Amino acid sequence: MRHSKLFILFIGCIFISLFITGCDKNSQLKENAPVVKTMVVGMTDKNDSSVYAGEVKGRYESQLAFQVGGKIITRNIDLGTRVSKGDLLMAIDAKDVVQTANIGAAQVESARAQLALAEANLARYRQLYEQAAISLAQYEQYKTTYESALATLKQAQAQAAQGSNALEYSQLLADADGVIAAIQGEVGQVVAAGQSMVTLVKDGELEVEINIPEGRIKDVKVGESATISFWALNNVVVSGTIREISPIADPVARTYKVRITLLNLPDTISLGMTASARLNNVDTDVNYYVVPLSAIYQTDDSPKVWIIKDNQVKLQAVVIENFADNAVKVTGGLHAGDVIVTAGVHKLHEGQEVRLAGETK
């Protein structure tokens, strides 16, 4: 009887040992399962995907510059200064320009004196020619001298007019009513002709400028409506219309500038305010999911993703529409709530057990 109890106790210990060993192996397998980065698939929010940050700008902006070079001696404006057409904004030292104008005026007087002499000589020799006292060749010589003097006077007058204009160009005047948005010149700075000094935003229409990624620009059309809100005005909302789409992408950001004309503009909106533009007609009829490009597992010509169910991965074929900004638009094969692997997809195999990033062992 005693031996039977010992035998039963021995058999029980063996079963317990085997059970513990199996648990340890299962635990070890679970701990050895690779950790994967995942995301939960959700339907793309059309509203959020078509909202872009922008800035309020004037429709008409002028880059004002001096038409002559020189040293700036006067600046009558600051950022935000409101100016009227004809107001003096800046002036450069006109000493050299004045001297050039004086030289032109002196040349005009000299040419005028030469013309008077040539005219008097022509009159005298015309009388002598009519009296047959000189030959026709001599008379035509003085006539040519007169015509040359007349041409010299006209040339001198044109040069003097240029000098006079240059004197006026030493002053930079506002070409319209508006607000100073940028200043690139300071007193004492030597500038060249044509160098931009002032940005003047002209009074009139205000617009919102936004930048749209190249992957979305095909969905945007001129004339489509938009809804604009302003954070600084407690999200005041106004309507807008897309007026202009840049045909060329920014070489660095690879985005396209889009200008939206504001309708029913309240007086509280000012230049430079931050705006949020919601494009109302972008991709409103297409259901799709946006997933990272790194989630795609390509086999032959069939793109797939790894879906995680019960901590195991399973390949799922998907339909891809296009690629943009390191992401892909998936139009088939996925459902909202699916958990997919987004990194290391080429190191997995069908049915492999995995652990989610952040999951405890």
Automatic annotation (TrEMBL):
Gene3D superfamilies in alphabetical order: 2.40.30.170, 2.40.420.20, 2.40.50.100, Helix hairpin bin
Pfam family, one: Beta-barrel_RND_2
Identification of the protein by name: Efflux RND transporter periplasmic adaptor subunit
Residue span, CusB-like beta-barrel domain: 208-281
Domain spans labelled YknX-like C-terminal permuted SH3-like: 290-355
Family affiliation: Belongs to the membrane fusion protein (MFP) (TC 8.A.1) family.
GO molecular-function term, one example from the UniProt record: efflux transmembrane transporter activity
Coiled-coil residue spans: 108-159
Protein keywords: Coiled coil
A GO CC term assigned to this protein in UniProt: efflux pump complex
